[in-house]
Amino acid sequence: MSPYLSVLPKKLHRYSCPLWLIPLFLLGGCLGHQKGSVVPGTQISTAVGESAPADAPVFAVRGNYYVEQLPQDGRGINERIVDCLRERGLKAATGEAGQAPENTDVVVTYQDRWMWDMTMYMIRLNIQMKTPGGDLLASGESYRTSAIRKPPTYMINETLNEIYDEVDPSLVVEIPEEETKTIRRGKQGSSQYNDEYRF
Amino acid sequence: MSTASSQPRKNLYRLGLFLISAWLTGCTTTSESMQVAQVDYQAQPLGSVTVQVGDNSGEAAVMEVSDTELREAIEHSILAANLFAPVVPDKANADYLLYASLVRKNQALFSLSSETETEMYWRLIDLHSGKILWSQNIITVAQGGVTGLAGSNRNAGSANAIRDNIAEALDAIHALALKRP
Predict the structure, then answer these.
(1) Mutate which: A7, A111, A115, A117, vs B, most B CBs within 10 A
(2) Bridge partner list, A120
(3) Closest-CA distance of chain B to residue A192, Å
(4) Residues 6+ apart with CB under 8 A from A146
(5) DSSP symbol at B35
(6) What is the percentage of chain A residues whose pLDDT exceeds 90?
(7) pLDDT by residue (tens digit) across A4-29?
(8) Nearest chain B Cα to A29, which residue?
(9) What ipTM does the predicted assembly reach?
């Protein structure tokens, strides 16, 4: 008898093969996560033009957003973030770092990390919301391994939803169904996929 | 049971153990200690503090820093520096809240260089008045080790950069010359 079976009761021997699969299900949290938070001490302002105490960083949720493009970003992630903000009815623009217009209320920065597994996919996206002066207001993260990969725009919406769920739930949007399709093998060039998937 | 029929089952078990081990390696981190070395500011501790780490900290991947590791490194560094005492786990029993967020960590993945640039955002809040006493973005650059293992060098670079960042933050807080509440 196998020494591994000897540790189990006899009636469980027939199930011994799939038993070692149980830890794999317990490790499901390693596949991905999404989270968002507001920095302690941040004042939340959800009304346009609402004034706030000057002694605390203010997150003007309905204000003007400026997304700072990463110099090494060749995939237009900054433009996708702008599109996702505009879909929520927010005013947003993008450009180089340090070039935000004077009427900017929130500066958005991001870091995207990519991995290769048959094709390139975004494994992690971090988004930060800051004041024009550099004070961090809120941040969010979406982390997805290859098994549960999603298009960049989906992950951007996910991350923004995590942030806005903390400050203004009315800005949490349902991510459109067409953005939930994942990259599948053997379907390169399929007409149902747009430029979101080509890198 | 004959040896011939048990051999495939043994191989299956070994394969299963190997797959589980391979899976687990993706969920572990090999970050080295980021604790600041012993620093004595020659003053009484300012009061109790609770440390909160922002969600920007990466986790569960090689060369990344988990929230728990970062928070523990900051707590140990605070105690080593005798800046605040005690360090408490929640805001209810604390005089101050020290918030730290690992905003950005630039490190080449496929390179012999172990240089790491780390940006962290810090904020210190007086929990009695609710006022923000200090906030700052701190950027530090550090090199890793000189071992023959590139992964080990990069981990050392990450740890060194974060340790330097924590040290600068504690220096800045000490320079505020805060009074005990």
Answers:
(1) A111
(2) A116
(3) 33
(4) A115, A117, A121, A123
(5) P
(6) 59
(7) 556 667 776 666 666 666 665 555 54
(8) B27
(9) 0.71
